[in-house]
Amino acid sequence: MNLLLIGVLLALIAVAYQIGLSKSRKLAGKGNNTANLHSRPGYYGALVALWCGIPALLILLVWNIVEPNILRHVVLSNVPANIAATLDQAGVEVLIDRVQDIASGFGVSDQAAAYELAAAQQLSKIESISAFAKLAVVICAALIGLVWAKKRVSQQYRARNQVEKTINVALALCSGVAILTTIGIVMSMFSEAMRFFHFVSPLDFFLGTEWNPGFSTSGNAEGSYGLLPLLWGTLMVSGIALLVAVPVGLMIAIYLAEYASSGFRSWAKPTIEVLAGIPTIVYGVFALMVIGPFFKMLGAAVGLEINATSALTAGFVMGIMIIPFVSSLSDDIITQVPRALRDGSLGLGATKSETIRQVVLPAALPGIIGAFLLAASRAIGETMIVVLAAGNSPLLHVNPLEAISTVTITIVNQLTGDTDFASPQALVAFALGLTLFVITLGLNIVALYIVRKYREQYE
């Protein structure tokens, strides 16, 4: 019913737009002289469509929010008081589900009680009445809004102002949803992290050098919860990834922006960007089955012991994965450098390579730094590659040829399996997630500072 109603409502909105557009054109007179109107005809059509759609959609939204509670009350009101008194919250939910299944025609596996059948009959009747009433009320609201808005259309009516104000409100609401979602995620992680710090001291967590959580059924924090081995592993893998991605990505961007022909660029850039669309689990399998054994074989050939699952393996494959982020963003930034800067440098006798090195890259430096930091944030938060290719060795060492553990690996380990989410063994995952959030937030702040500092120099 809701889908049908939304379809009818969208059709009415389209009709309302055409009605408003047609009336505004009549007001414009012969030759469609829009100079006689305060706003262009499209704004009048949009205004009528908005007045037709927004009130009806709001009524539909409120109705769908309130209706389940009313239907729930209908079911409970048809249950005998002596039976309702014996039900706990779980029992009430089971009863409501059974009555809804009977009313919908699916039925239940066992014999339904007489009061369940009576409640299902009453529920079915109320649902039918509610469906027709909802259809009538929403359509009437849409038609009333259409007629009222059509009457307000006149030559001097400020339709553009009203439409733009509505659009501004809608954009603000969308921004608010994004902001509130971010705040909700942070607050949920923060509250659970604070519960973890009731079990483990923050000093022991942030400054501890040993990670060996003990799993117990008592809810107590047993073992060691030192963050430093995990944080060091994350930074080591991310550093290796950046050492691979930054030079390669930047050189690709310079070549595509300054040296490549338009024909080569037209297919080379999309081909490189395909790497960004490959699922990370594919990269993880590739690292585990190809790159890891290759590095191990290469190390044996030169007399080095390289584990197949190591920081080097995970970092190298992760670097390949984030090459498109660096190259694509850097290429877009380099191509936006004004042509006049290049022509001025070449006019003074500089070669093309000198122009790129001394003029183009300094001018594009803020955006390039932002691309690097974006790639760093992507590397720090990567999960599947390090889960499969880095190993799981939460030890504090500096050898990239050995297995390592990262923050994301540990989050996966702590939240998988039969875990009590009220225990410190699971709550620590939220503390680790909050730590990652703070790190990426710090990278974004640094990027913003660098961009602002150097942008003032070149503007």
Tell me what you see in this structure.
76% of the residues lie in helices and 2% in strands. By secondary structure, it is mostly helical. Strand 1 and strand 2 form a beta hairpin. Helix 12 (339-347) runs antiparallel to helix 13. The radius of gyration is 32 Å and the shape is flat.
Short description:
The protein has 459 residues and is mainly alpha-helical.
| Class by SSE composition | mainly alpha
Reading the helices and strands in chain order gives HHHHHHHEEHHHHHHHHH
Strands ordered across the widest β-sheet: 1-2
Radius of gyration: 32 Å
Please count the helical segments. Answer: 16
Shape: flat
Number of strands: 2
Largest sheet: 2 strands, antiparallel
**Helix content range:** over 70%
Model regions low in confidence, pLDDT < 50 over at least 5 residues: none
Query: How far is the first residue's CA from the last residue's CA?
Result: 57 Å
The residue-averaged pLDDT reads 84
Beta strand %:
under 5%
